[in-house]
Amino acid sequence: MGPGGGLKQPQCHEARICMWKYLDVHSMHLIDKAQTTDELKRVLAELFELQGWESDPRAAILLDLYFYTVQFSREHNFTREQSSTFFAIVKDTHEACVETPLSNVEECYHYFTELLFCHAVRRPPFSIDLFSQEQLALMSDYVVNTYFRHFKLYKYAFTPQVRLDISLSYVGMPEPELEPAAELAGELAESVMVPVPPAQEEEADSGTTAPRESPRALLQEYISAQLCQELAQLRLEVEEQLRASEEQFNTKLALLEKVSSSPKGGGRGHRK
Fold it and tell me: How large is the greatest C-alpha to C-alpha distance in the chain, in angstroms?
């Protein structure tokens, strides 16, 4: 939530070198010593204070995200520097995702790609050539297929739901207030017998007395009906925009997969 209780708008983040940002040399040493799944999860839980992951669904999701990120680095024989950097890229991408409940998939994907390239081109102090082109393709495919394809699920699990609350005030009509006299009359109604005229008593027995609707009730009913129509139209427009955004994102993912599955280019350039 932003200042004043408003929603935080999607932001564009600047990519920076993030080697050793979350996992320093000592942390990587502890991770390397963990050989089994349970040992690795225990180390990650201690490093990022996720000890309650067995009962906390959010902690369990984060622990899985961190665990499989480390496993990916191991499977592809990343160095400690590369493993620490890739872990930071995934964690920073996730934190950008959950910083707002609003849709920010394009901003997060742009930030993720900038983080990758920030560690693939030698241009100190802005970027370093830590990964090769082949490693960039592998990391991009992995994050797209395991994180961005479940982007909405991460958003749902880690961000509050947005709910619209509407309160109405009617111009020229005072707000209803419960007066003390009315409360006293309600308390005395059980002990005081008020004589009822015979005509009213017959109407009450026959059930023919029709309740009178106040002008305020009629106005509220009219406004509620109009408001329901407007909300239904707004819901349709939002669903249409979400559908269009999802189709556009799926198209981008398909193009990315097509590019990544094409024959890879040459390796990294030789350093002078």
Answer: 111
Q: What is the CA radius of gyration of the chain?
A: 31
Cα gap 40→66, rounded to integer Å: 10
Question: Contact 215/111 with Cβ under 8 angstroms?
Answer: no
Residue closest to 143 by CA, chosen among 95, 214, 72, 75: 72
Q: What are phi and psi of 123, to 5 degrees?
A: -150, 70
Nearest CA-CA partner of 158 in 61, 67, 69: 61
At 87 the three-state DSSP class reads helix
pLDDT tens, residue order, the chain (272 aa) = 544 456 788 889 999 999 999 999 999 999 999 999 999 999 999 999 998 899 999 999 999 999 999 999 999 999 999 999 999 999 999 999 999 998 899 999 999 999 999 999 888 888 999 999 999 999 999 999 999 999 999 999 999 877 766 666 666 666 655 555 445 445 444 444 444 455 554 544 555 555 556 666 777 777 778 778 877 887 777 777 777 777 777 776 666 666 555 554 444 444 43
